[in-house]
Amino acid sequence: MSSSLGVANSTYIDYLFAANTTHSQAQLDSLANNALSRGIDFFQNGNYDQAIKEFKTSAGLAPFTDNSAKAYNYIAQAYLNLEKTDQAIATYKQALQIYPVRDDLHLALGDIYAQEGNQEEAQKEYEAAVRFNPNSADNRYSLGQSYLGAGQYSAAQEQFQAVTKLLPNSVSGYYGLGQVARASGDYPDAIAQLNKAIGVDKNFVNSYLELGYTYADMGNDQKAKEQLLILTTKGSSSATTLQNYMSQVSQPKIRFALGLDGFNNYFGPKTKIATMDEDLAAPNSTKLYSMNFVFSKDMDIASVQNRYNWGINRASITQNGGVYNGGFTVPKTEANILPIPVNVTYDADKNTASVRFRISQNAAGNATLDPAHIVFKFYGQDAYGKAMDKSADEYSGFSSIA
């Protein structure tokens, strides 16, 4: 930090005291105000270095005044625009030594700490801002967001409730309460608070985004998609954010399956595998088959390719003719299929797993099978660690996806 901060620069000092000229405080205040105005002009034109010089001059000419506090704030903001965050922080700290009870300076310094990821220091500054000005909704909202980020939900809720009392017609308090409720797992209250926020301001897109998050967390895809449509219609970039989140939190499903290499899983009970596939006509012959499974989202490659995360079993569902072999005892001629596939590969570009398994003929050459009631099931997870949706984690010829 330049040592000239808070002291008039040499040019102005020479001017002020040249020829033993005596200036009244009113004259100094006028000069300080002119320097502040010039600094603001430079600031608005993007000439931040020159703006900083003028603001320092203004602060030095009339210290301990409101204009001086404004000058410090502008200096810090200019440093931020120059990507000199450390200097901006140092400026606010120096200003707070002179104006320790200025809540706006504490709030601004807290914002910098928050943006830098220093949540502990940010919270201290926000708490100071509220302490010195508890009637500022901005102060309480920022402190509420800080508490929310720290997982202090009760404290955050208290601040957001205070915001709704200070500004009952503002969206921010209800939005914050909706965030707290969602983070706490109280989805009905989150929906209620966020709908209040939307009722106050239908153009505040964050309310729709947070409501979409809530429905996605609940697994209510239809309602989440409604919020996505609203954001899309409004042309908000948050639509992409919500869509990505929905994909992340949704449970993966098997969307489609297809038998390959001649495996026909539409044949029913007691099908002779020799007639199903001529490659299995000879006694003790074997053949490698494949089933391709298309997933609804990106999957964890290692999980999919771990063959022990797959099961190949006989159907036992009693509804709709789901029992293997029609519910009759499996005959001694039953063909052998191991419950674990031989290997599994995964095409990440197509979200498709190829599961390879072997069918073996018996020594008599009369092995039978019920291909339609062979169930392929996946027990693994997606790329985000989500377990399979139980309604679509298996496939068989008779029931398709289940």
Q: What is the typical, i.e. mean, pLDDT?
A: 92
Terminal Cα separation, in Å? 67 Å
Q: In CATH terms, what is the architecture of the largest domain? A: Alpha Horseshoe
- The helix/strand series, from N terminus to C terminus, equals HHHHHHHHHHHHHHEEHEHEEEEEEEE
Which residues sit in consecutive blocks of at least 5 with pLDDT less than 50? 1-8, 10-22
Please count the helical segments: 16
The helix/strand class is alpha+beta
Give the CA-based shape. elongated
User: What is the count of structural domains?
Assistant: 2
Q: What integer value in Å does the Rg equal?
A: 35 Å
What share of the residues lie within helices?
40-55%
CATH class of the largest domain: Mainly Alpha
Q: Write down the CATH topology of the largest domain.
A: Serine Threonine Protein Phosphatase 5, Tetratricopeptide repeat
Structure description:
The chain has 402 residues and is of the alpha+beta class. The chain folds into two domains: 10-249, Tetratricopeptide repeat domain (Serine Threonine Protein Phosphatase 5, Tetratricopeptide repeat); 254-401. Helices cover 50% and strands 13% of the residues. The protein contains 16 helices and eleven strands. It has helices at 10-17, 25-44, 48-61, 66-81, 85-98, 103-115, 119-132, 137-149, 153-166, 171-184, 187-200, 205-218, 221-233, 238-249, 273-276, 301-305, and strands at residues 254-260, 271-272, 286-295, 310-314, 336-337, 343-347, 352-360, 368-369, 374-378, 394-396, 400-401. Strands 1, 3, 5, 6 and 7 form a five-stranded antiparallel beta sheet that branches. A hairpin with a 3-residue loop joins strand 10 (394-396) and strand 11. Helix 2 runs parallel beside helix 4 (66-81), helix 4 runs antiparallel to helix 5 (85-98) and helix 11 runs antiparallel to helix 12. It is elongated, with a radius of gyration of 35 Å. The two termini are 67 Å apart.
